């Protein structure tokens, strides 16, 4: 019999009926003899509703009070779920983050977990109870309520699983698991049975919303087996694992990620001298704007062009800053585009296979898709292309890397 931490997200507890069906599922797991610790989010939309109330009263809400406020969302769902379980004859007890003692630092609205006290939970488990813990919240050294940042219940789940040395942390959500790419774009996208932590981390940072980045990082660091599956549909979902574990034949590329979140800026005709990159990029980062991809062209007659991408929301701000820099450097011109998209191929198999990037570039060229920028890491290659070709590019790469076909291992 196993010890499982099960996390249910906002849509899974979005109505009283759903809370009752979750309770039914948990009761069945208990009847099979498993020990169950449940982490829940607030009912879907509730955290946003609370935050809106706060900003109506105070334009920039006090962070400490914001945490006191938004932590109430999860306090509602833990109590209701516990009642629903008792109603079905399953013994349960709910706890807030501070009752358990999920100790965090004091950085309100984005606190980090330092330690979790497992005594209370273990006592309840030995007494045969299901333990329900409020996600997303903790308490600092002085007793202030803290929260972990949006989507933080995933992190609570993983951290609890690590502290309790659980057999698995199961994230129940509104999708069946992790797909080779977004099934809304590529019909033949397949559900992955397994994916490695590193691949999942790349996917999360490239815009996949299935799991919170921090939760994946945490799970990788503490080697917590993590499974994502659907709250209300049958199926084993996707298991996020350590590389090569039990996998006979690792596919070279496991998934194609994409996003339309970025915009591109180019400064033309700057002197190609030491320090130029820092002259251009330091004022951007001083304004707290994150730069993703960077490209500096080869110089002609001592002059060069310099291109980088930022989040689309930061485009105007970055452009204003760049205009000032252009004046200082006597640059010829600046250009910008919001009509770009980033497409990435991800796979740990890239480490041991040469020529993956060129296969990607050839496939895009065959479709006459122009690559504007490229960036790589050990396990991914990303390209920037015109946004209008995004869907074509994703479908092409999905098929070129054999993701449409049947995956090897059963
Ligand atoms: N309720 C919080 C949010 O909406 C935490 C979570 O759902 O994970 O961000
Ligand atoms: Mg949520």
Q: Which properties best describe this structure?
A:
single chain; VC0802-like; 20 strands; eight-stranded mixed β-sheet; 410 residues; 35% helix; binds magnesium ion; Carbamate kinase; four-stranded antiparallel β-sheet; globular; binds aspartic acid; 26% strand; alpha/beta
Show the helix and strand layout.
Layout: E1 3-8, H1 16-31, E2 35-40, H2 46-57, H3 63-87, E3 92-95, H4 97-100, E4 102-104, E5 113-116, H5 119-126, E6 130-134, E7 137-139, E8 145-147, H6 153-164, E9 168-173, E10 194-196, H7 197-205, H8 213-221, E11 226-230, E12 238-241, E13 255-259, E14 262-271, H9 276-286, E15 291-296, E16 303-311, H10 315-329, E17 333-337, E18 340-346, H11 356-366, E19 373-377, E20 380-386, H12 390-400
Parallel strand pairs: 1-2, 1-9, 2-6, 3-6, 9-11, 10-12
Antiparallel strand pairs: 4-5, 7-8, 11-12, 13-18, 14-16, 14-17, 15-16, 18-20, 19-20
Bound molecules: aspartic acid and magnesium ion.
Magnesium ion is lined by residues 9-10, 41, 151.
Distance between the termini: 24 Å
Bound ligands: aspartic acid, magnesium ion
The number of domains is 2
C-alpha Rg, in Å? 24 Å
CATH superfamily of the largest domain, called what? Acetylglutamate kinase-like
The CATH architecture category of the largest domain equals: 3-Layer(aba) Sandwich
* Lateral strand order in the biggest sheet: 3-6-2-1-9-11-12-10
Look at the helices and sheets and give the structural class: alpha/beta
Low-confidence stretches: none
Named CATH topology of the largest domain: Carbamate kinase
What is the makeup of the main sheet?
8 strands, mixed
Number of helices: 12
By DSSP, the count of extended strands is 20
**Approximate strand percentage:** 25-35%
Which geometry do the CA atoms define? globular
**Helicity, in percent?**
25-40%
CATH class call of the largest domain: Alpha Beta
**What is the residue-mean pLDDT, rounded to a whole number?**
93
